């Protein structure tokens, strides 16, 4: 067997022995040995292979799979720009703490920087976004070579999973392969070197033992009797199993936080983001907190950013720490102007919060919720509320990281029987369809996605799935307002910028989404929010379908301003 062919079989074999269940691959020439080995492992039932033609989508497919299964997912690509196309997914995996192994086939070192075709200096291409960049030894026909190959694979998987200490995330395994790439006979490894066949008990070459936490954070120094507000942002790693909060303490949570649907003893503020400006602008001084406890990474609301940057409010942060130890994930540094302390959550009995403040927030949130629900409207928030309400129990929901995730936070009623995902690591709209496909492949039940039209169109290659590829049950709700609806709510959406808005921010596209779906053989139907209970009913069959709902972005800014004014009125009245 040629060395490159043998090495590829060894690499894939070691992945399976280490617990890899899914791998994603894109066609290419330099990665041909790895593709052949992956196909053989898939046909033997040793792992599940997912082939995609677009590297960017392949990367986000791996992120979606990894976020649900908790396992490292290898993504195998050829050399050159194919590797660079994975950069957005690597950035998202890095900030989200999702284990991912970028396997980049490469030319041998003598061809790098020589002008050779399809060759770039790709080792270390992802910089600090990767937990590690490891170069596989060049395949050689020599005694003991396979032992080294297996050890390097084990090291790369350990770093990606964070098993022996560290934060899970992306790792690059750069694999230089010298021609000839494929043995014409393509025999299975059967050379005298026993390492080619691996350990006889099917165990991995290196057994990595999970490390205990490297340090125990001291409890946060909460002030007894202080007006305390909990802000729960993106990611669940800062909410460890067994967490409990004092009864009734107000909790303002983003939809991707576990506290959004289960405040763990606290009082969920479903309309809290509508109320917060009143506390910050002096309308309701009784709602202004003295200390804020931050769990996870707040990413959605400017009012929360203002809250955490207020020098008159003490901010105490609970960092997200990898289960096996390693560095805390610095999720709380993005928005906090000054964090006074970082530590663990104290025991609920040690908080002693101001209960009058807690009751005031509960009452204010209830008032705001009553106002918000008076007019369902035909905009993004109304669609978000209807979508979440229509989902079956046990569903996973992938929400676009632009307007839809904010709409869910502003308008939807939280549900403990629905898990919400969103690419809030870097908050890009890259690869959203592929991310949802990955979640559907990792979740045994029905998966749904709520995406804006531009986000959907940005990754229409995610609909391109070959006839032999595995499929999950995925329904994509496309909120079609013919452009970028979120910008209407920002500064550039003000009337003074109307002349430039449509071309450079609104970006109308006029795309026929039904025809686009037909080209991909994807089922499509148009619906209204009232149709969603029927349109989103589970089918029990694998495959992707698209439900297109037209909404009006032209009314979004005015509707938001009217709702905010109505909330202010409700909060300022004595009723």
UniProtKB/TrEMBL annotation:
Gene Ontology molecular function terms on file: 2-succinyl-5-enolpyruvyl-6-hydroxy-3-cyclohexene-1-carboxylic-acid synthase activity
Species in which this protein is naturally found: Actinomycetospora aeridis
Chain ranges of the Thiamine pyrophosphate enzyme N-terminal TPP-binding domain: 8-124
Family: Belongs to the TPP enzyme family. MenD subfamily.
Keywords: Magnesium, Manganese, Menaquinone biosynthesis, Metal-binding, Thiamine pyrophosphate, Transferase
Name of the protein described by the UniProt record: 2-succinyl-5-enolpyruvyl-6-hydroxy-3-cyclohexene-1-carboxylate synthase
Gene3D superfamilies to which the protein is assigned, alphabetical: 3.40.50.970, TPP-binding domain
Enzyme class: transferase
Function of the molecule: Catalyzes the thiamine diphosphate-dependent decarboxylation of 2-oxoglutarate and the subsequent addition of the resulting succinic semialdehyde-thiamine pyrophosphate anion to isochorismate to yield 2-succinyl-5-enolpyruvyl-6-hydroxy-3-cyclohexene-1-carboxylate (SEPHCHC).
Region span, Disordered: 180-201
Domain of life: Bacteria
Pathway noted in the entry: Quinol/quinone metabolism; 1,4-dihydroxy-2-naphthoate biosynthesis; 1,4-dihydroxy-2-naphthoate from chorismate: step 2/7; Quinol/quinone metabolism; menaquinone biosynthesis
Subunit structure: Homodimer.
Cofactor binding: number and manner: Binds 1 thiamine pyrophosphate per subunit.
E.C. number(s) listed in UniProt: 2.2.1.9
Cofactor: Mg(2+); Mn(2+); thiamine diphosphate
Catalytic function, reaction form: isochorismate + 2-oxoglutarate + H(+) = 5-enolpyruvoyl-6-hydroxy-2-succinyl-cyclohex-3-ene-1-carboxylate + CO2
